[in-house]
Amino acid sequence: MMKKRGMKLWSKVVAVCLVLALTISVGLPAMAATIVDGDIKPTSTGTINVTGKETEKGATVTAYQIITVNAENGESDNGGTYFQPLSPMYTWVDSIAAWLKTYTADGETYPFSGYVGDANEVTKAFSEINGSDKTTFYVTLRDAIGEMGDLTSKTTTFSTEQNNPTAKFTDMAMGQWFIVITPNQEHAGYEYAPAIADLTPKFDETGKVWKFEDVVEVVAKSNPGIIEKDVDDYTVEIGQTVTYTLNVPVPYYPDDAIAEMFRIGDKVSEGITVKNNSANNMQIIAVYESGSTRLIGTSETERDDDYNLYYNGIDYGYKGDQEEGYQPPKDEEGNPINGQRDFTFMIDFDYDNLMEEFGYYEESPLQNIQVTYEGTINENAIISDDSLLNEAYIGQNNDPYDRDSYTPTTDEEKLYTYGIDLAKVEEDGKTPLPGAEFELRTKGNDPSTALGFIKEEGDGNYRRPQEGEEASATTTLVVGSQEGNVGKLLLQGLATGKYYLVETKAPDGYELLTDPIEVNIVDKEADDPDYDYGKNPIEGAGTIDDAGDIEEGSNITNIYYKTVINTKPPVLPLTGGMGTIIFSTVGIILMAGGIALVVSYRRRRHA
Fold first, then answer.
1. Do 426 and 409 share a domain, yes or no?
2. Are residues 27 and 145 in the same domain?
3. How far apart are CA 325 and CA 258, in angstroms?
4. Is residue 33 in some structural domain?
5. Which domain holds residue 58?
6. What is the pLDDT of residues 482-500, one digit of tens each?
7. How many independent structural domains does the chain possess?
8. pTM higher than 0.70 for the full model?
9. Residue 508 in contact with residue 486, Cβ under 8 Å?
10. How many Å apart are CA 539 and CA 560, to the nearest integer?
11. C-alpha distance from residue 134 to each of 9, 123, 587 (Å)
């Protein structure tokens, strides 16, 4: 259930992290003759040698020219020539310059346009980039350069004969060349850092002459693969069981390898329980290039010849039983430092046995190992933002001839759980009001849909039951009455969805609310909770955004806030009320009429 937008962003994050780990490979001058000043021509060429490991055999290597050198030869006083750079000395080729000026992605603005000046000049801003800015630029360029037209490029493949294969480019024009490596089908899961081969003259400040090294060596840097992790539901409640899926590319090790570790592990946070027995329903599956699958084993039926399954330990990055006296690197306290990853579970494969039994199926090679397992959301899910974090890793040797090359590559998933914070107040909308009781239902008028909760420490504080607590749960939710929690009701451990708060008991002297209160916890991008979480449409509830942060006020994360007002019944008039007023009014009218008759009678007598 990998999300398109989320996956796109994750792929870019992983790519940047990969290249940060490998570093940008920059070509270094080789042991070759140095061409000095007057012998340097604008048309001078050089050689680029790209070397790799055993696993690079057959990989495709493409060199793209991205920067050119502007220069001419001047005539010296003694009749010779000298090398004279022209302004600007370095310019981007047209296709790269156009890309730099216009590049945008995912609604983000990049500073690439500042790297190109008038007449395609390579600006000072580009020469000064370093660290993550440099990494971001080269990774982005690597992903885009294949779609650009009108580029000068050359393509070859790594040789397949020697242990250190080489790809050689000759007659390469002066300038900067961008090296992109594409793995062969056998190593399709490998990722390569982009490389730079710099064939440009350098000014020697001591000798005051220009020099040009015409042979450059580039070392290919690769990672055996990137683990992909997915989960069947990102918004969860306490007690819910979720299924995780890991897809891991299988590394390739040559027959004479001395370092061929292959491990898959996972570390779950305190809010998730993965049982260390068959109850986790783990399955380990071989996935072939053809799409066919075969079951390797489960948490119940381990295959000791192919793998061992461990729980709750530390991966130190070595195998004592196959290293024949090898001592791994250790820290000052004597602890091995390779890997050093805590794990909830780890699958340690015997690589040779795995490949012998599962390496091929119906003539199709083994491509991935898929691991599925279950975890249950527990009571600790409400402790912190990271209590539902889950980090999987693949551990393997980047260099099959170096026992110290064990490298874990990680991927993580994060789940989200929510709460409802209800404030019960008097008619003024401010004064806290104790004494009410509620139920939380999934259907407003159906009492049978009331959800059970476990009473937590703190007045008016409840959470959803974890596995095994269902019998102890209550559906009666009592609003707080103690100091500090008067009128408060906090319900935690909920997934997204539509709920109804139903008042079952009103505070003494107040009217019982007859209509259910709808609470709709939704996320704005249902398939992408990692990056834009929740735009709650209920008026007055606040906005849950960015993995649960409340935009309004200083409220804590992942909580839906709701204020509920109770009113007292109106007071009906009794003695001295409206009835007396009616009789008084009639009496006054009768008295006024009597007075009028008396006055009229007296006037007639005296007339």
1. no
2. yes
3. 13
4. yes
5. 4-223
6. 988 899 999 888 888 889 9
7. 3
8. no
9. no
10. 11
11. 18, 14, 98
